[in-house]
Amino acid sequence: MLSDKGLLRRAGTLIVAGMVAAGGLFSGVEARVRQVASADDIESIKFLSPNNMPLKVLVVYSPGQQNANFVISLINIVAQMHEKGMVKKDDAFKVHVIPGWDMQEKDYAYINEKVGAERVKRFVEFNKAYSTRDIWMQDWGEVGVVKVKGDPKPQTVVFDSNRGRDNAELPGILANFWNSYLLKNPSNQYSGGDYGGNIEVTPDNVLLIGNTSTPELRAYLEKHGYKNRMAVLETDWLHVGHVDEYISVCPNPKALRGYTLIKANPRLAMRLVKDTPDAELKAIPHKEYRDAMLAVKAYLIEAEKKRAEELKLDAPARRRRTRSFGEAVLKYLESSEEMLASSESGANLSWGHEVARSDVEKFIQLNLTLANLIDTNVKKACAKISEVRNDAGKPHSVLSFPALFRKMSGTKHIAYLPGSVNQLILNNQLIVPDPKVRAMRLHISKTAAKVGLHANFIDSLPYHNLQGQLHCGTNVFRHPNKYFVKPR
């Protein structure tokens, strides 16, 4: 565990000229810094959810890692939100750009050229105190509020995941920058499971944390506010091992609790690929994805033909015939999503003696198996939410975005297409990794629109190709007591 001195560090004056002090931003939250005498002075920590309104959107501009178009697209989306009246004047926010270590004056000029000098002036601020080689903004930690004994007002806090690496100093700099407390993960294992992408929270303050997190971190969070409010979800099947790879929390004014869980759904992806015209699949710009999606579709269409041929046989011949793996998959995919998602673990994968042999069959089987695993964990999250809220029996709002995974090595897996669930959420705007398949984009857009959200697709390949996604490359400093949709 941390020493008393290590628990909280004094945040001093603002580092970057031109930024507004956190104390001037908050209503009802006194953002100041104080040295606590003991770790026992901390009563509770509460992380902020996507229902909290954004104040700063953090991203690294790293020309060497070719994410310029991503950063420009993000700035333009934020600018359009303001220009179209989606954000009230009092709720305005900016994109806070941390320069990559290799950023030069020409790179600043490039942003001005592509975004427009006036937009940059209004909606962008550059960190002049820090540059980094590490683009993974979600990994350094989380932002929340902390209650301290003797002080009735909650204080803003930056939680340092203890990732170290090139962003080791960044949480402290941000705490200074925002006049916030700084708390540090007590674990010194430098575990990827303790990173911010593996610490997600619902608006009613139920923690969704992956089982790749260290026992020390979980014990610390239990002690400081999350005892009996923590759903420990399986993430050890993932190469990166973060819960944000397959589940996200989105504000939803139409939902009973004011939010929706969005899950990655490989079954849905398989259905969409099967029903997509060949011409549309052939238009996928990336050869690897194009060839893979065409192969999956061709396999499922061939299975349909085999099933149709069976219907021409007499009853004895049909009984003697061995059902193919493809036909078993078709029957499975044609079952209702509600039935499959609610089935007990493993029950919906009983396909008899059919065995996946070819590479495409193994890819399909892998993704249908992972779909079941994701369902199991989403149900676990919902059960914990109901337990905490004491509202068992009330329905949960769960939506699906298409997703596909591939095996990395052994039992570890990673997103095959850019992972659409690993998204950035700014009020009712979803900033979504482009999955590169038009039918998937359309489905995501329609699904989001049903609950009053708008999907903005961004090419996230600079992150995806480095085994991360859009959410991993960003972070948000949110308002502690202003909500786009207030928790219910």
Give the CATH architecture of the largest domain: 5-stranded Propeller
Mean pLDDT over the residues: 88
- Percent range of helical residues: 25-40%
- From the spread of the alpha carbons, the general shape counts as globular
Q: Which blocks of ≥5 consecutive residues have pLDDT under 50?
A: 1-37, 345-353
Concise summary:
This protein is 34% helix and 21% strand. By secondary structure, the chain is α/β, with parallel strands linked by helices.
SSE order and pairing:
Layout: H1 4-7, E1 42-47, E2 52-61, H2 68-83, E3 94-99, H3 105-115, H4 117-123, E4 124-126, E5 141-148, E6 155-160, H5 170-177, E7 181-184, E8 199-201, E9 207-210, H6 215-226, E10 230-233, E11 247-251, E12 259-265, H7 266-275, H8 278-282, H9 287-310, H10 315-320, H11 325-333, H12 337-342, H13 359-389, E13 398-402, E14 405-409, E15 412-415, E16 424-426, E17 429-433, H14 438-450, E18 454-458, H15 461-464, E19 474-483
Helix pairs in contact: 2-4, 3-4, 7-9, 9-11
